[in-house]
Amino acid sequence: MTNGGQIVLKEKLVQYFDLPQLQTNMRREILAGFTTFISMAYILFVNPSVLGATGMDKGAVFTATAIASALGCILMGVLAKYPIAIAPGLGVNAFFAYSVVIGMKIPWQTALAGVFVASLIFILITVLKLRETIINAIPRNLKLAIAAGIGLFIAFLGLHNGGLIVANESTVVGLGPLTVGTTWLTVFGLIITAILMVRRIPGAIFIGMVATTILGLVTGLIAMPSAIIAGAPSIKSTFMVGAMHIGDINSLQLVVVVLTFLLVTFFDTAGTLVGLAEQAGFMKNNKMPRVGKALLADSSSMLVGSLLGTSPTSAFVESSAGIAVGGRSGLTAVTTGLLFIGGLFFSPLLAVVTNQVTAPALIIVGVLMAQSLREIEWHKMEIAIPAFLIVLGMPLTYSISDGIALGFIMYPLTMIAAKRGKEVHPLMYALFFVFVLFIWILNQ
User: What predicted TM-score, i.e. pTM, was given to this entire model?
Assistant: First the structure.
């Protein structure tokens, strides 16, 4: 491209993304996009690790993760013009792998079909502008509890995968043996990442993973990779599997799984969008402009991701890193998306990103998600009891859906006991019966 062409393109980008009005510039936006990417690049390696536990090909999941993330970020930037990145979410991928596939013994192909159906519903309710009704139906306290509960569940997975927590016949779980070298990789990674997070270093989680990997390679606890750069792994084993297995969703149990995918993804994205919009100063009259387009970008990437072979996408809280360095426009998200495309060619590094490398990332993300606990109205027992059951139920039952079910069943009962039954949305009463059936079906 000639210099004249570059200048014209730059002017068009500046105009389209309203950079002067937002008091920013291209250099700052690109830097913010790079910062966001570095902060969340760990998902390229963590997601294949989590979904790989189901038997899915890690290489295919790696490629699907990169493409779905790139699409989501670019759509968010172009359509909604927000500096918010999208990628397969931690938490819902754990629900996909450990609750649905491993826990319920549902084939991963059927689980992908569930994600596909949930994404179609997500797009429908976004287009029909039903999101406000759904958001308002679920009490804010329970939304906060779900986020925190998922955080504890993710942290528990990290502690277990890293070898710090193991099964114990006497006490159910206990501290893992510290005589195992790989366990010390987890300890090292957790300490380094924690220090970086406390020091507010951009990309702390990613840097922590790199440092842990290097220590593992130097000490011989992790085998050297055969290469660093290679062509993108094939997605043949997962491509279009979700659409082809849609007929497998033929039971109430699977319908509940689809609804859970929808609810968890929807509220995780909605909560993250609002929080990031508050940080960037986008909120107007307690409302987020263009939120419909933002949700459409997310639901579209979720649909494509389900067809490529990955769990649901959601807005990433790590976008706050890019916002913190000045990102204010969609150009930040577009930059992040383009970097995800570049990340496609680093799949050989999957071999060195072991469970001990990703474990600290899971634990720290759990800490971030658990921060919503402070906003729950613990002084009101009719709120505290169902919220507590959700938060504690997820890690102890090793199931996100079971934790949600416990809280959603208890909530109408405690509200009625507090003589506040009229405050409960009719949808919550409907969900009461849905989750009672859900628990009953699981125990047959």
Answer: 0.75
